[in-house]
């Protein structure tokens, strides 16, 4: 039996125990926005919130990440020799992550750590040293469409523990071995708790009002989808800014640069985005995605066609709705997928 | 005329222009998929023109799309333009990005556009808003099982409080009546909160203002002034600006962009409406707007004839800064 009960008034001591070996982080309100912040000892985490404005991908894939350092000299033994950055010093727990975000990192594992040749040590280090304690959504937003994207308000994938808010108490489900170990000392849940959690799940799923069908996309030839007429209209109002990609929990493109200042040098990885023409500009001057339409199409094709094709049916979207909320010209991914599926 | 009448008149004007073949496309606004999210829309047929709308949430500057033409540079387009957008169009004509003949301006007086973030903050950040409608000077905000009435004046975009040109400066069709030319706010009182600080204080205030910047460049990409084929932050040979989130790189981006807009910015507020992080982007551009006005007696985009001060050279220009 891996389902346990955590009384909210005992959450502080449970978290203190988690925090003995780990740094704790949780969503908190700062200047009117819900953001990820360190959870101080004894501090009550936020139990009621929709989701953080930005996704927590920064924890595993920082927007700016120094990968290596080197001495910027052509001569001498140390000249241009790369030295790795130290790994994450302490384990950490990310408390009250929404299931859509936890799921997103499960999807990104398939991309950052594919096989022996494609195994990103920076991603892996942070993933392995993080415990994800997810908090199921009981009140989804009108922009949520997770249930259409292999996910859901109570989805467990990608999390180590899933908490379900039952009012005064939380049901704690151990999802991974690491998660089961973290909640081992908590009392067992009883049948009534399980029934209440199941009820909350069904209610939350029913509250997701947007359904986005994907059933035809997989059946269509990639080139047919690529050449579909609707792309001529989707991109019209797009500004080609990076908002959708930077808010997206699954967008993961990056650019690596060497920076030098005097004798100091570092190799640094920054978020990049397919909406930018520069992202695909070749040294020759050729750009395979030279027009705005090519770039806008790429983002949707990548998420809803290429990733499902290459990653065994996983979708490059978890339906969190952040892009819908933030796009400066209200390009709504739900409409785009409907067009793709038509 | 209320918003519904204006929207209907825009649809009629657009249908006529498209049916007559006077333009290939009408760029206006349509209702978005969420409340308060009116969005740019490109109508190519009289039928599509029926989707055009007009509300206080028409916050994108559509002049932007004249230099980023969706269907190439050929043909004539019509664009729905309130005061600031018309000033941007004038600026683009002066900067030889478009010709006056290429664009048919469907002018509308701006009622002062609204800030959806302010509406959300006032009703409570946790509340789900399902519908918003304008009723005269009030805004009726509705959610599941609740409704709230907010005075329009409390939720306008910052730039609209100090607008000096609500009516379009050029137009080929005018929808509705012209309104009072200004909202009456004092831009100089709010334009440059950093002016009184010393250098260190300014740097600290700057760092605080931009600390949430994620460099998505929505401010740049929403701006009709930012039409450079290669923006300085995208130049790679040489690379002028670092790509990281370090304060110096973020500062370089915002400072240089603001200076590029000197003597050109019409204070349309599209940058702030686009910013997903709610950054007060105008803190810099407003100060520069004030400087240009005080030093050169110039306000951008108000007429088609005057020469932008930073595009002109005079033999007696002060040259004391050249050392």
UniProtKB/TrEMBL annotation, chain A:
Statement: the UniProt record of this protein carries the keyword Iron-sulfur: yes
Transmembrane segments: none
Listed Pfam families: Fer4_22
UniProt cross-references to SUPFAM superfamilies, sorted A to Z: alpha-helical ferredoxin
Presence of the UniProt keyword Metal-binding in the record: yes
GO MF annotation terms: iron-sulfur cluster binding; metal ion binding
Key words, A-Z: Iron, Iron-sulfur, Metal-binding
Domain 4Fe-4S ferredoxin-type, residue spans: 227-259, 307-339
InterPro entries: 4Fe4S_Fe-S-bd, 4Fe4S_Fe_S_CS, Helical_ferredxn
Matches recorded under PROSITE patterns: 4FE4S_FER_1 (PS00198), 4FE4S_FER_2 (PS51379)
PANTHER family: ANAEROBIC SULFITE REDUCTASE SUBUNIT A (PTHR40447)
Protein name: 4Fe-4S ferredoxin
From TrEMBL, chain B:
Stretches for region Disordered: 303-323
Listed SUPFAM superfamilies: alpha-helical ferredoxin
Keyword Hydrolase: no
Assigned keywords, A-Z: Iron, Iron-sulfur, Metal-binding
This protein's record includes keyword Metal-binding: yes
Domain 4Fe-4S ferredoxin-type residues, every copy: 256-284
InterPro entries from the UniProt entry: 4Fe4S_Fe-S-bd, 4Fe4S_Fe_S_CS, Helical_ferredxn
GO molecular function, one term: metal ion binding
Residues in the signal sequence: none
PROSITE patterns per the UniProt record, alphabetical: 4FE4S_FER_1 (PS00198), 4FE4S_FER_2 (PS51379)
Identification of the protein by name: 4Fe-4S ferredoxin
Record organism: Desulfoferula mesophila
